[in-house]
Amino acid sequence: MNSERFTQLYQEYHGSLVRMLYRRTGDHDRAEDLAQEVFARALAAPPDNPRPWLFAVALNLVRDDGRRAVRQGRRLQLLKAETPTAPTPDHEFERREQTAVVRAALEELAPRDREALLLKAEGFNYDEIASALGLARGAVGTTLSRARRRLVEAYRVKEKERHAAS
Amino acid sequence: MPHLEDGRLHELLDGELDPTEIGEIEAHLRGCPECARRLQEARTFLTEADGLIRKLDPPVISGLPRPSPGAGLPPLAAHSRLLRYRKLAWAASIVLATGVGFSASELWHRSQSNGTAALDTAFGESVNDRGTAAPAEGPAALQAPAMGPEPVGAAQPTREGKVSTTSRDSSHGRETAAPASRRPEPSLESVPDRPAAERRRDGGADREADLGPPQDAAVSSITAAAAPVPAAPLAGAAADEEDQALAKSNVRTQPLPAGRSTAIKPSAVGLVEGLSQHLHAPAPGFRRIVMEEAVRRLSGAIRLIDGAAPEQVQFGPGAGPTDFVVRVVYADLPSRQVWLDQQRITGQLTRLGDTTVVALTGGGVRLGWQDASGFRLALTGNLTADSLKSLARRIR
Q1: Model pTM greater than 0.80?
Q2: In this prediction, does ipTM exceed 0.90?
Q3: Does A120 reach chain B within 8 Å, measured CB to CB?
């Protein structure tokens, strides 16, 4: 892949890729690192159909990375707990709480459903989602239907629990 | 009669079906209340899920303020973004050598989609209309741009005007097909250069003929007014304190030939809300999409104002249960927008040659017409009817 083509790919997809990875992981640094890894792989093995390929690789890396992160998770949580944080305004606190609930609801989805939803949020059409996730095109609608319903229902339940607990 | 599958309903809502398939589904929905209910439910899930996904966006990126739900494009002045290349130093040198730099906020705002539970329609009649002007049904909220700055979070309710005028428009328009990607990047106002990638993306597919309000538009008594809508504040709208207003408008207007004026009493009074100070927040029920998606949803073509740079493109429901509207938003003055709403007409063209002008109390005006290529269009702005017609002549 020549530098111009690579630059074009980077300009077109890097932001969207990082955004999707952030939505998936909640960690900006991790999202950036994963995105960099994706482009490194694209440079090494230029894809024919870059958009679904880039995002498919990104989602695979998240899954692999997630398995390692689980093992480190407990240690990181302890580190975060030790870091003193400044008191935040109520609305910021509420926003973070809501974000946490959304993320928890998203985690309840099956991986394929979750990924289809994130790709759709990035403007992928059904053909592209099918290509990125290895689905039949006819299955994408059903996947998104299920994902949207489950996300909303899971969120509603968790929000209710959160408010009941507060 | 077998019911429609959920996947099929979502395909419909996501704009993945061709006109023939849409027609078949519409026919089914007309005779199946259960499927119509499930479609509404699916739409709710879609809208809520989109909104939840957007909540996952980070609060601040590189010192920029948090993008609000439904937030539009950031200031077009480029923000430098420090990119970390912990593993790709050599690749970074290639990228940096070619002068990469683009707005950090843009990374998070592009392809954003946002939905709200409320539905609104930009057209006052169903696209299934086969000749009669049926008043719009269902919840609808057409939000006209407001004049001047408005307080944060506030929406100024306005009421539709009771008097509208139509006039005969002089001939205009020629058939041209210019590849959008090679056209110069014009703008309503002086707008700083946007990154090349965004210009290419916004160019989208080739646009079709030069079209605008038809010649000799007859006075129409079409009651194409918006259905009654609650004067609710914009769902999810919040001020983006750091958003910079775009430069001054360079909208060119010219006096139009005098035409016959006829008072038209809208069949339905709609409460039209002014936009909040948040210039970029889509109207309730609308969500931001990229240009490519808009072109795809309109079957490969889109109408744009020549000489103007779209600020954003939105997608939302139309009058009927299976209708949708693509809205191209232009910024006229700071805190003032012009909307170009468009639909593909799947049925018979019934009002070719008619142009409606609805004056909205509060300063907004809406111009509506059908063109010969199967588009139903509406241009809305806080401008005079003549100014809107002048803009309409520039639609390609």
Answers
A1: no
A2: no
A3: yes
